[in-house]
Specification:
The protein is mostly helical. Helix content is 84%, strand content 0%.
Length: 239
């Protein structure tokens, strides 16, 4: 019986449809648990579904490339989904124009704070230079962060881990922190989540309101641009 089940799993694991279906089902289950429990920060759907997938891959001894053959269809949709963030942003274009100065100041403050605190903590923990530069763009969306780090001589794979952890923590704990600070304005909440925790933060902001999602998407894009300019410059001065 055990060999039969093992043979079935080997057969299914070779099908891209299994990974795709598993990912979608686990995320829906995580969403259901999240809503059922009252949306607590520790039950963030992204974190729960990612942890479940990792556990299944380890338990079944399935190589990640095999899983990604199916999951790459979701990965492909990240591009169109990111572009689609322009729709709610376009609807809020007048608010963006009115808040141009506040957006600029917030962007510079948030981008510099994200980089300097990450490097500062890493320095206190006595990380080497490669780890420090890999950690610096943790609040930028993964493709941009990995590209920046590669040019600066860091480890893109390590950066990807830092980016994912930052996104999950920011998406889970960011709204809680903003509530405690009594920041309820959707533009401020959205911009803060997008600056600090990129795409995952933006997904969380969209759950709050279209306004928060629009400003979060704007912050995610602008922070990627700002970090791509500022980090190489600052690293050449102090690195």
């Amino acid at each position: 019986m055990g060999e039969t089940i093992s043979d079935i799993w080997v057969y299914l694991a070779a099908s891209p449809l299994l990974a795709l279906t598993m990912t979608l089902v686990l995320f829906q289950v995580a969403q259901w648990l999240y809503r059922k429990a009252g949306r607590p920060a520790l039950l963030n759907p992204v974190f729960l579904s990612a942890a479940a997938i990792v556990a299944i891959l380890i338990a079944t001894d399935t190589p990640y490339p095999t899983y990604f053959e199916g999951a790459q269809f979701i990965h492909f949709l990240l591009g169109p989904a990111t572009v689609a963030l322009a729709i709610p942003l376009y609807r809020q274009i007048e608010r963006v124009k009115e808040s141009a100065l506040a957006i600029t100041v917030s962007l510079l403050a948030g981008s510099l704070t994200a980089m300097t605190t990450a490097v500062g903590i890493g320095y206190l923990l006595r990380l080497d230079a490669i780890s420090l530069v890999s950690l610096a763009p943790k609040s930028v969306t993964a493709p941009v962060a990995m590209g920046i780090v590669e040019k600066l001589g860091g480890l893109p794979s390590l950066t990807a881990v830092f980016v994912i952890i930052t996104g999950i923590l920011g998406g889970a704990l960011g709204p809680v922190v903003l509530d405690r600070l009594r920041i309820f304005d959707p533009t401020a909440r959205g911009f803060a989540l997008g600056t600090a925790s990129h795409g995952i933060g933006t997904a969380r902001a969209l759950q709050e309101s279209e306004v928060a999602g629009a400003f979060s998407g704007l912050a995610m894009g602008l922070n990627a641009l700002a970090t791509a300019i500022l980090l190489p410059f600052l690293w050449s001065l102090f690195g």
